[in-house]
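Translate sequence into structure tokens.
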Amino acid sequence: MEQTKFQPKSLTDLFFSFTILALQGFGGVLAIVQRELVEKKRWLTSEEFVEEWAVAQIMPGPNVVNLSMMVGNRFFGLRGALVALAGMLTFPLIILLCLALIYSHFADNLMVAGALRGMSSVTAGMIIATGLRLLVTLKHHPLGPRVCLMLSALCFCAVALFRLPLVLVLLGLGGVSCVWVFRRLGV
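Result follows.
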């Protein structure tokens, strides 16, 4: 079942949509971006989100910023990409600068350190939940769910257990995966 797709009403809508997304995320906004762009705003289907997210991850820079520019470009071209980028960065940058000033006065406080550790745990949980929600898109992947999950497990083991550099693991497994997909698609 294909979900109905919409698009931003204007560049202003695009700017404030990405500003609101950026302001909701602490330590990562993947879960929030997926929910907003796919489930609420319906600017992208789940499959499109996964494809765009994959491309955003291999580009240099923060993944969600790359994704925002790709979405902005999809609907409004270069102007949309720049507006989405501005939406992702303007207000969070202002808030970050203010928080840095405040943090410099309270950095030694144990409660502040504990609160920051707690936020990182919540963020990890949100990312895991998003990954689980996106598992259904593997049904449509050329390699199928089993192979995709096997490659994910190999990546996890290589990085978490064997402490291999992520860049090498991604180049190796990513290269093998790309060749495998191209062969399956007959490209």
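Note: The chain has a mean pLDDT of 88.
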